[in-house]
Every structure is written in structure tokens, then in C-alpha cells.
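Known limitations

Files may contain more than one protein. Parsers should not assume a single record per file. Below, a two-record file is shown to illustrate correct handling: read the sequence, read the C-alpha cell line, then continue until end of file.
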Amino acid sequence: MTTPIHFNATWLEQITKNPATPFKSKLGSIPYTANIVIPHYRDKVRSYFKDQIDSSLEQECKNINSPMPFEHFGVSISFESPIEVHLYDENSMLNKGLSEIIAKVGPIILKNTYFSSAIRDDGHRNRFPQFQFHVDRSPMQDTRYSLYTRNPFCPEQKHPRTASTIFTTNSAAYLQAIKQGLFTKDKDKRAPTSNLLFEKEPLETILGNVILEQRWDEPEGVGEIAMIDNATVLHASFYRDAAQSGYRIGVRYLAGL
């Protein structure tokens, strides 16, 4: 059993120095590879929404009281062999180091990981609507972090999933709502909380650009975990096969420091 105590803001600095280069290390005796999922994300948002940005991206964010998009978006950590992880305490408080990372790059993706049998089935299961970007928790709730799981010991979830979970930032969702005519800058001074977004955009222009895709497609028996802060990131589903919406993934809510 192991606790990810070295995953924190200081650890993240090693990766963001060269955000396009995989970072290799060990947690205990288990090797892992970490990488930034979308390097230079802020620049990509500026470029993609250049026609929706009037003066500057900074001003657009200020107008809706939203933080700037992350400089880099998402970090993925893939272990070479299965590892039991302890990400939060008995009070559902997310590990401080993980909170630090989420504050700087948004989603954390863990691959080849699993929870102990005592908490493996905590929370509930859900299947998100396609491209319906939304938040799970309001700013008034203490448990503002969402943690999503693919349980490698579950007869259903041990298989790769046919649907992805997709993530974007408040500012990107707002600018897309402007682009689609759902929001106007005069009336809508907030980030979206539940809107159908990006569904008509060419996939090759959004995935890996302004949207992070968590595919849940590691081989059979490989566990996967994803974490976000609902204050900065929205999520939805993308059905890679339109005829299959995929099984429900695990969901639990956590507080943070």
C-alpha cells in the first residue's frame, strides 16, 4: 500500500519545465511515467477563440470572475504495474499535494491504480450526457472535487469503456457558449454550469486542443482514476461509438484544503 505523498506542486514543477516531454520516476518501487496532457493550453484557448475574444483573454476571464485557463491542462500518471493508492482521508479530504496540482493544471489522471477493498465501491455510478458540459458541485459545497473511477476488480468496469469523459475549463466553456449564441457578453457574466457545447465542432479541432479526453481505454483489468475541481473545470461524455454510451463510471465527491 502506498500514499502519493510526493505528488505535489514541487513535483509538478519538474514536469512543467519541459511540458511536452514525459517524466519518468518511481513511487516506492513502482516506476511510472507522467506527462502533461495538453501542453500550452492557455495559448490554444487564445488561438481557438480568437474571434470571440474582444480585447484579451485576461479581460474575458475577469468579466466572468473566472480564473485564466491553465497554462498547461491536465497531468497523466501511468504506473508500470498495479498500485493501490490512498488519495483522501476518512473525512473525504483530498490529499493536499493533489489539491495543489489540480489548482495548477486541472485534471489529474491516474492509470493502473486501484483503491483498497474497504473504499473501492464508495460513492455512486453515473453516465454523463454527450457534450452536456456541467459541474457536479456548486461553489457553496465543501466537497467541490469530483473523483471518477474505473474499478479493475468490477466484472463490468474491468473492461475498456466505449465512451470518454471530456473536460474543459470555465473560460473555454464560456467562449464556446458565446460562439454558439447561447450566451451574450452583455447579459451573461458567468461561466456555464450545464450547457450543450462543442457538439458541432470538428473533433480534430477540439480534442487535445481545448478539450481533454479521458478515454478509459486501458487494457482489461487496468484501473483508472480521474480528479477535477468543479470550480474550474466542467465535464461531459463523448460517445466514441454513437450507438454505445458506455457503462456508468464511479463518482465520489471530496473536500480539499
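...continuing to the second record:
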Amino acid sequence: MTFALAPSNGELRAMVQRLQKRFGEKGTADLLGVSVLTLRDWTNGRWRPCGASPKAIWLVHALLLRPETVRSAFDLVTWGRFALCGYRSADSFLRQDSEDWSI
């Protein structure tokens, strides 16, 4: 299953590489709860993260390297995509001026 707002495989690989630069290979593997071999396979593109791994990679990356992207539960659900656009919550996203959709 793919989520529209989820980071692409390339974005996830870049996040893992940024974490590795900051925390080293072993430290990043420990943070993500995976083996060093799995981490290497992700960064080499041999395997791609699946299951809960993409969310874990994004969350650890966001909390440690880009905390401004996680301000609310809305940011967790939307992978922080709207925080980067200036929306601070679900209310501000939903209250934007738009067409009247009433029937």
C-alpha cells in the first residue's frame, strides 16, 4: 500500500543518509531499530523500507533533524507535508478559503 503523502523511496534514502551523517551507521541503525545490514541495504537501494519502517524513518528524521515539521497529530498523519506549506494544524488547513461545497 502506498500513501499519497508518504516520502518516496529516494526521499527516505536521503533521510537515512542524513541520519547516518549525524549519528553514524550503528547509531542510525539503533535509532531505527534495525540491523546495520538492513540499513546498508536501504541506503544502497537494494531493499526499500516497508511496513512501519518508512514512518519510523520519517519520524526519527523529523524529530531529530527537522522538528519544525512535527507540531501536532495532524503533522504525524500527513507526514509533515502541510507544515512545510505554512499550515500549523488541521484547522488551518481545513479553514483555507475555498469554494463552497454545500449542496
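Parsers that stop after the first record will miss the second one. For reference, the second record is described as follows. The chain has five helices and no strands.
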